[in-house]
Amino acid sequence: MVMGNDQNRAILDGCWSPVRNKFCFGTGSYKVYIGYVDPDNQWWVAELLCRKKFSSSVLSVQYHPSGNAIAAGSSDGTIRIYTSYIHEVDKDLKSPYSGPLADVNTRGDELFRIDANSWVESISFSPSGTFAMATAHNGNVVEFNIQGTEITANEEAIIWDKLPFRTGVVLDDNTFLAAGYDMRPTLFKREGGKWKFSKDYKKEGKDTEKRQSVVQSNLSMFERGKKAPESTKKVKVGHSVPIISVQRAAEKGLFYSVDSHGNFFAWPI
After folding, report:
1. 167 DSSP β-pair partners
2. Residues 253, 214: Cα–Cα separation, whole Å
3. Rg (alpha carbons) of the chain, rounded to whole number
4. pTM, rounded to two decimals
5. Distance between CA atoms of residues 72 and 206, nearest Å
6. What is the pLDDT of residues 107-120, one digit of tens each?
């Protein structure tokens, strides 16, 4: 991939556009980049999305469902939305999306900015593209609504008095899922125009069986000089370290969670 020499710090977050013809990433150099295949040279290039950089690291980036805008959150406490249309790759694109921002045809214009008063850990747009939820390190969740090209924000859509959320995902227009430092996914529902706590996913009280891996079994065989019998280990279902990602599952009615030790769980919504 070809990119400028001004990027000399770590990539902290990234995502593909909805149709996967381009991608974006936020960096420790306070900038957001956008990548795509150069149609003339047929190689990947990455360019600055906007010359106006943040004043601290960009911790989270997320494409709008239209593919024409990117939301970015930083440890400087701000959330910004920039246009991200690329003529070379988007001009002939026939997207099924027809909601807000579908007609945007510029790149690098700032559509919106708000101060979340804390590190912005994650941003997730609704599938309809009409709103997004951003988790902040102070425990609050910011909601911003999109009507046409007009964007408004509610800085305290959810006020959480427990350990802050590291990640969040909008499952549908009335359901938001968040997780983080308290190690349990937490579900919120919109009722009467307000977000309300619905449930959290604690560790199950009963033990479940976890079979030895093939490697573990073979190691045991060599240690004892004979074939190791298949064995099981009793483990609790749930996370024991902070959760770093929650995502919608392709299977209907499920979501996935991953923690900082790489443990992966599927849960019913």
Report:
1. 179
2. 31
3. 21
4. 0.84
5. 41
6. 999 999 999 989 99
